[in-house]
Design goal:
Dna Topoisomerase Vi A Subunit, Chain: A, domain 2, 27 helices, 5 domains, 583 residues, 52% helix, five-stranded antiparallel beta sheet, five-stranded mixed beta sheet, DNA Primase, Chain A
Length: 583
Amino acid sequence: MAIPASYIQELVARNDIYDTVSRYVSLQRAGRLYKGLCPFHSERSPSFMVYPETQSYYCFGCGAGGDVIKFTMEMNSLSYIEAVRYLAQQSGMPMPDEDDGQAKLKSRILQMNKLAARFFYDTLNSDAGRNARKYLRDRQLSDKTIVNFGLGYAPAEWQGLTNYLRSKGFTDEEMTRGYLAARNKNGNLYDIFRDRVMFPIIDLRGNVIAFGGRRMGDEGGPKYLNSGDTPVFKKSNGLFALNLAKKSGKDTFILAEGYMDVIAMHQAGFNNAVATLGTALTSQQAKLIGDYAKKVIISYDSDEAGQKATRRAMEIFEKEEVTVQVLQMDGAKDPDEYIKKYGAQRFEMLLEGANSALDFQLLKLKNQYDIQNPEQRVEYLTKACDILAGLTNPIQQDVYCTRLANETSTDKASIKLQIDRAKAKNRRRENRKKEQELLRSGVGRQIKVDYRQKGNTMPKAFAQQQIICALVRDNSLYNDVRTKLTADNFTDGDMKRAYIAFENLIEQHIPVDYATLAYHMPQDSANVLAGIFARNADIIITGKDVQMHIENLLTAKLSQSEASEKSIDDLARRIKSLKEKKK
């Protein structure tokens, strides 16, 4: 769908980047800019910057960048056209009257999923679903629970759902794109879900966006089969039963591993339970939980795999600043079994006594050692002090320090000294890491040309970036630049594409800003452009600077021997030093 550049400019003008980003990210003013924790990766120190002057954002940690449209796309898993439509609705702008194939496909898949969910539910309650109904009854699920979660059954036949959807007017392509059907080696279509109890996955707006299927016996493929990513669904972004847990009104969520665990907890009255969708917990899912709850209780299986997943989940939640507690279930492997065995009241008592994440870590560590043995006691204490060194609350650290001293009959002062040493070691490691990140966030990180090839030198690449940055900031500079340069003078692919797009827009008498130029470039190139603007946010590029960069682009070279001796980091330092002198 082609959208006029003038429309994009007005859309960006009506949807301020700060106002949009601040709905998702807590931003703090930093001079003329704003900074916050990046929503696209886990971090503790803010590296995500918002630039009101260029109406753009950039993360120096993960390299994510763009304008208000790109941000809306990434935060809401939308296509470009859908993000434009969303922002247009927010600002009361009508969309250009043009076809939108991607939006239509998403709408069709959602309609198809709704019909598929009805088909599975009806099949569960037919003669074909007799065994599936028995399976659910054996799992002690009530009729009310089955209806509440919309559970169903996929028949064992190869084209049961396929034939049904065809009769409703859906095409083979729509079924394959929606992950309900696939083709065999002969090109024939067949149902992906067969002879399985079906769990619809429903988003916060009530749309059926995907399915999970569980086999009932020991044969028939993997125990669980889940929808792959589709235009309306991404495994890493969603949670099972979030639509129900959100309505619970509780500020604590229970995170389980499987659909049946969640359903069993909801049936027992714990309607704040959710589960990941056939994958390990992701930072996006942790952030989603943090949007609706202040605390999460992890109730993964008690086997080794479940405990390993628990430790990984704790690390992710810590980065997202969500308070974590861990459920320890003795006598049962998962919440479903525990509730069946001991009842809902005892499970509630278990939840109330859930260990903190720190208690869980220390207990797991302690179980690895015989603290009656002096050598093992020292090793345990050393590693325990490494854990306590991560605490920022001095009162909390003192409490645990006292507890550790009492349980090991060790002098508290010695433990405190070891914690201080561990803290100093952590600080040194963090400082080294920050130095490396700062170095790699310099200009050299975005250079795409091979500076070892004759003519493709680092100064040339830097000059190209600065020229493009200056042109977008001040379009009038183009009158002079075009008399000296052509697109062929740009050896960096991204900058060449930017210059060609800039020329085309100027020839159409369209003012060029960052958002307009980014719209006319490939996404990867637009991201590079965002990084260039971010690194030049506090640098003024004058007309005289542009003349210098043009001269560098046309004449400056490093000898092959000189270039080969310099690493990317060396050259990045050199350029960073020049920029600091300019300041």
